Amino acid sequence: MSETNILSGKVVSDAVYTALENRITSLAHQYSAVPGLAAVIVGDDPASQVYVRNKTRRFLKMNLHSETIRLPEETSQKELLSTIRTLNSDPVFHGILVQLPLPKHIDTDVVIKAITPEKDVDGFHPENLGQLTAGNPRFTPCTPKGIMRILEHFHIDPSGKHAVVLGRSNIVGRPMSILLSQKQSYSNATTTICHSGTTDLRTFTKQADILVAALGVPEMIDDTYIKKGAVIIDVGINRVKDSSEKGYTLVGDVNYDAVQGIAHSITPVPGGVGPMTIAMLVENTVEATENVYT
Fold first, then answer.
1. What percent of the chain lies above the pLDDT cut of 90?
2. Catalytic entry in 44, 49, 61, 122
3. Whether residue 122 lies in the annotated active site
4. Could you give the C-alpha distances from 203 to 63, 155, 226, 235, in angstroms and in order?
5. Mean pLDDT of the chain
6. Is 222 labeled as catalytic in the residue annotation?
7. Residues 210-242: pLDDT tens digits?
8. Which domains does the chain have, with CATH numbers?
9. Do 202 and 235 touch, CB atoms closer than 8 A?
10. Measured in Å, how far apart are the chain's first and last C-alpha atoms?
């Protein structure tokens, strides 16, 4: 049985941070500019808290400016929109991130549209998604951008391959399918999107040379879903309760143990796609700052 290669997002993210150092130094020396990010979090969703905390830690480590605006669960949509308008006009912040998911009484689409596109470092604004679709992105959503960087770093060229994406959200699935199919270097794949309405999922996943799992279902994808030699990108980060001190274990959408020796390579959970999402957020914020001054 051949060994499955591990695609470490930590290794790739470290390379990204090293490459960004000169750009950050250049902004400081030429324009006295420090890339700044405002992260807005409404309520106390545990996964959101972890992500924002990790993001803040990384920005501080790189001597970048980051502020987290924490709002209570009962914050009204009107109050949140007012906060965003203030951040839109504040030159200290070159990027604005509103952490999802938002409480049910707030319309996520309205909130995303309220962020000025030039500061939408998540890449979720309709204008930015449109530019991505046209092949001329201002900001590429962080998780799909990070996945593409993993493939490039490990010399996994999607060109001519069949890529199957599980999930159709504007955060991961849809932009992922666009990036994989564009006519450019380290892209150019034939791409299929599967989702909750797909019948007989295995028919499609077993054809995949590259499988991107973004379903949010713990360990759903096992060896019966994949073909030998497939490259698996596991986007899922799911908390499964256990008897450990933390009370839970983090697992992906893929049964990691079950696909060992069958998959050619796989991103681990944790330590795969997660670190890349934060790295791409930093990169997008640096790009947003460069767009102001250059």
1. 88
2. 122
3. yes
4. 48, 27, 10, 21
5. 95
6. no
7. 999 999 899 999 999 999 999 999 999 888 888
8. 32-117 (3.40.50.10860), 141-273 (3.40.50.720)
9. no
10. 53
